[in-house]
Amino acid sequence: xxxxxxxxxxxxxxxxxxxxxxxxxxxxxxxxxxxxxxxxxxxxxxxxxxxxxxxxxxxxxxxxxxxxxxxxxxxxxxxxxxxxxxxxxxxxxxxxxxxxxxxxxxxxxxxxxxxxxxxxxxxxxxxxxxxxxxxxxxxxxxxxxxxxxxxxxxxxxxxxxxxxxxxxxxxxxxxxxxxxxxxxxxxxxxxxxxxxxxxxxxxxxxxxxxxxxxxxxxx
Length: 219
Hints:
- The chain is α/β, with parallel strands linked by helices.
- It contains four helices and 13 strands.
- A ten-stranded mixed sheet has the order 4-3-2-1-5-8-10-11-12-13. It has a three-stranded mixed sheet with strand order 7-6-9, with no helix packed on it.
């Protein structure tokens, strides 16, 4: 798969975790693509910390509205009933535990479910955004990312090396190679992509993986 098709593949799989009536926050990058793959007939209310509830899919070319943007400053569409509010109200929703699922990217995740995704020491950082609040208060946190870094090094580690966004906050990791559940017993490989083997997933992962006895192929 190309880099772009890998992103779409991950977003499609994450969308399968959504349930009717859920309030969901989609982080910057791959997570924003999930909005395009919400199952037909399902009502999902997408939340953005910049003050919007009811985000729709990306607009068609020529139909962009510069006033409608997500947290990543990308143009989006609005669904019927969309509401707008201040950033303070938006974070009150997050901190009040009203978000069912947060889908977010990562630089590193480790076998305890720790997450690092907001800074690399020595590089300019604009801020952590809403990531820390979201992972600390959402009912479920799903990581949507490519399995390895650009140089091929693992992103799923025994222990995160970068400054943490949250401790023991990750519930599920969805990559272009597989689906991994974070449990008290460690990381469980639940699904693998159609074009990879278990051995390849393990070789691309620093953390220890337990292969589920009912391992499936990602649909």
